[in-house]
């Protein structure tokens, strides 16, 4: 049996309920994983509120780390006793133990602790595909990154520094600005009192930036477009403030701009892609370029409280649940 957070309807954090569920033995191609840490991501809120539809009732959560307890027929990529993490597969990571498709499990190197890995499976891999695949950074660029003190943001700050990229990061408070700078962000813009586009033009000598990574969405769209150089790229990798609606004529008028809305699935599959992404990420951790630990830790049963904290914008860094 497993302790699992489930929801039977969409809505506020109160719809998250701790339930006892049957787990069973792994079938062909499956592995049973006992979790040590479960990550909480903003995308979980999208599923909980119904912005991203899914069948109900259902579990919640997309990534976790733990140990393989058993494997089913035909599984050779992992063995019982292996430490693993994952970020793909069905919803349902908010649990102490569950069955998973073995092909999505990523072996963890001994140098990377479970607590560190829990902050990196979705968030670190997101930084990887944003910086190394969606708009491949070579070093020397100046970029704009929104929500620089968030879970992905603090990893992005460190990755940018390791690449030799000048990162301009937006934050909501001076306290968050200090945290982002301590992690490697070159310049910060405090959105509660500074104009984003004006500051970017000031920092770049009027040129703007070749790429903007925008996970905020509706509230920052206009500013993001105004920060771009001609033929620049807006990477719309989230919509925490609301959906993005773009008038394509504005893209032409502002400099023949490009917009992409990437999804992890299309960059982390097939399995070889996912393992290569993880290898680069873990390599930076082992080299000391990326340091990451949870900033907030909640018991599994308090998943609703974790969601409330994340929605309030009170958090920095990564939030995790402990079964």
UniProtKB/TrEMBL annotation:
InterPro entries for the chain: ADH-like_C, ADH-like_N, ER, GroES-like_sf, NAD(P)-bd_dom_sf, QOR-like, Quin_OxRdtase/zeta-crystal_CS
Record-linked SMART domains: PKS_ER (SM00829)
Entry-linked Pfam families: ADH_N, ADH_zinc_N
SUPFAM superfamilies membership: GroES-like (SSF50129), NAD(P)-binding Rossmann-fold domains (SSF51735)
Entry keywords, A to Z: NADP, Oxidoreductase
Residue intervals of the Enoyl reductase (ER) domain: 11-321
Name assigned to this protein: Quinone oxidoreductase
Organism: Pseudaquabacterium terrae
